Amino acid sequence: xxxxxxxxxxxxxxxxxxxxxxxxxxxxxxxxxxxxxxxxxxxxxxxxxxxxxxxxxxxxxxxxxxxxxxxxxxxxxxxxxxxxxxxxxxxxxxxxxxxx
Length: 100
Hints:
- By secondary structure, the chain is of the alpha+beta class.
- It has one domain (about 5-100).
- About 20% of the residues lie in helices and about 25% in strands.
- The chain has helices at about 15-20, 50-65; strands at about 5-10, 35-40, 80-85, 90-100.
- The chain has a four-stranded antiparallel sheet with strand order 2-1-4-3, with helices on one face.
- Strand 3 (about 80-85) and strand 4 form a beta hairpin.
- The longest helix is centred in the middle third of the chain and has 15 residues, at about 50-65.
- It starts with a strand and ends with a strand.
- The mean pLDDT is about 95.
């Protein structure tokens, strides 16, 4: 199995949507810009958001198994993907890539 690095590349907040639709919550996302995780055996890395992992997992699994080239040439590096979690109020963008 190949190792995959997950890097937090962007954290966005849509305050207008939050104000209009979201109930106030005390704790949201723990991800930090530039934070990295290494996946060695296709298990969720410690500290990775459960919701984000659900989105990333199918792509991470494909990369660990030697696959890639998602959507017929979408990425410049065929052994990578740029994905976002499914939080519509504060999406986090992750770059995943094979590192060996």
